Amino acid sequence: MNNRIHRDLQSSKGLFQWKESGAGDPLEEVFKRALSRPKIFKNREVMRSDYVPEKLPHRDEHIRSLGEILSPTLRGSRPSNVFIYGKTGTGKTAVVKYVFKRFGEITSKEKLPLKFEYINCRIAGTEYRVLTELCGAIGVKVPFTGLSKAEVFNRLRRGLSEKGYLLVACFDEIDALVKNYGDNLLYELTRINEGFNGSGLSIIGVSNDLHFKDYLDPRVLSSLSEEELVFHPYTAIELIDILSERASEAFYEGAVPQEVINLCAALAAAEHGDARRAIDLLRVAAEVAERNGDEKVEEKHVRLAQNIIERGRVFEALSTLPLHSKLILTSLILLKRGGVGDPISGTVYQAYRELCGLIGVEPLTNRRVSSLISELDMLGVLKSDLVNRGRYGRTRKISLLTPIDEVEEVIRSDELLSTLLNHKLKIDLKRNR
DNA sequence: CCTCCACAGGAAGCGCAGGAGT
DNA sequence: ACTCCTGCGCTTCCTGTGGAGG
């Protein structure tokens, strides 16, 4: 099993290795190759996920609607709040950023007292930081910690009325904020305009959770969704247009044939029409082709890219986990390798405590481990199904969703856990004999 | 029909970090 | 120096629960 992982690692590395290895100065070779290699990328920036293109194919209607809704700002009155729904990669963020950019241009040309601020609630993280960013948008300086939320809120209100700004704020992934902190802040923000005329705050809420409305207080909902926009997933045909548009800017002519674009579009369309996925796929495929020294991107590169992206996702999700989550995964691996089918939470907790004992770490409580398992479930690493076993209680059956070898690979990238794993596996082997 | 298992998962609160205001 | 603020990770305590077996 060890060998297998080793082999996997080598072969995945092998992807990036040159076909022949020359002697002498190792960098010399790299330079020479890099300079003589056929070029694929003309402009790498264009394929980055946060790039806002000049043209957004198939979103004209949405751009016009949003512009229409925001147009009162140019005449100095406050526009309606807007709610935008749509799954990931349907162009919500791109449309908002694009519209903000264009309005920003007009604003600075005409010298209007307008501010447009884009905030990603999941990245901002807390209510406090969201408020801080709003303050920052209108030039009110706020320390990043130390003040009460109420104080920051007051400063925002004072700033708005003193400076006379009209602030249009986009709360992207607004569901993340509401799920963690409730809708109190939103309620307060929708009421901040009372007593203002001309200045104030308009909110654009963006969510990819279609059931998000259910979490909201009716009062917040009604004032927040004065206008609504719904973004539908892209079809494969639309994705082809989007990719072609980007590809023509990002790559040299002939480097990316049409059938490769079609393939990327088809693969992404099969997964809910996510444009971001499609673009990532094409970018990685092109990178693979480039590193390989090939002249153009081919189907095999796209297939490899698919693999790389998948592995990258797993690795990134798992390697940044805290120690105790990794210990839980380690126990799961050991139980699986030991021939236990899908263990129940009690068994996992026992194994986990044992591991903690071995490395001299104070174990967390059952309750906390239960939460960590739920978190891993939400991450999609494992699945925990509630099962009722009558007399034998009610518990969760835990199964790995990620291939066990991939999980083990990540666990083994931590030296301590790797040693622990080897140690335990050896003991189990002896016991079985 | 009732009991009782083996937990799930909500609520509250604690201690700490990292700051601000006085 | 002291008080007060929030977020975070965690514990403690608690109530709830579906169905096998008596």
Report on the structure:
With 433 residues, the chain is α/β, with parallel strands linked by helices. The chain folds into 3 domains: 60-231, 3-Layer(aba) Sandwich (Rossmann fold); 234-320, Helicase, Ruva Protein, domain 3 (Orthogonal Bundle), CATH 1.10.8; 321-432, Winged helix-like DNA-binding domain superfamily/Winged helix DNA-binding domain (Arc Repressor Mutant, subunit A, Orthogonal Bundle), CATH 1.10.10. Helices cover 56% and strands 11% of the residues. It is built from 19 helices and 7 strands. The protein has helices spanning 2-14, 26-36, 60-70, 92-110, 121-124, 127-137, 149-163, 174-181, 184-190, 218-224, 236-250, 258-270, 275-292, 299-319, 323-337, 345-359, 366-379, 404-412, 415-432, and strands spanning 82-86, 114-120, 166-172, 200-207, 227-231, 382-388, 394-400. The protein has a 5-stranded parallel β-sheet with strand order 2-3-4-1-5, sandwiched between helices. β6 and β7 form a beta hairpin. α11 (236-250) packs across α12 (258-270) and α15 (323-337) packs across α16 (345-359). It is globular and about 85 Å long. The structure holds a DNA duplex (22 and 22 nucleotides).
User: What structural category do the secondary elements indicate?
Assistant: alpha/beta
Number of helical segments?
19
Uncertain residue segments: 1-22
Number of domains: 3
Order of strands, main sheet, comes to 2-3-4-1-5
Gyration radius, in Å: 26 Å
Envelope shape: globular
Biggest sheet record: 5 strands, parallel
Write the CATH homologous superfamily of the largest domain.
P-loop containing nucleotide triphosphate hydrolases
Q: How many extended strands?
A: 7
Order of helices and strands: HHHEHEHHHEHHEHEHHHHHHHEEHH
Mean model confidence by pLDDT: 84
Helicity level: 55-70%
Q: What is the rounded distance between the termini? A: 18 Å
> What is the CATH fold-level name of the largest domain?
Rossmann fold
CATH class of the largest domain: Alpha Beta
Known CATH architecture of the largest domain? 3-Layer(aba) Sandwich
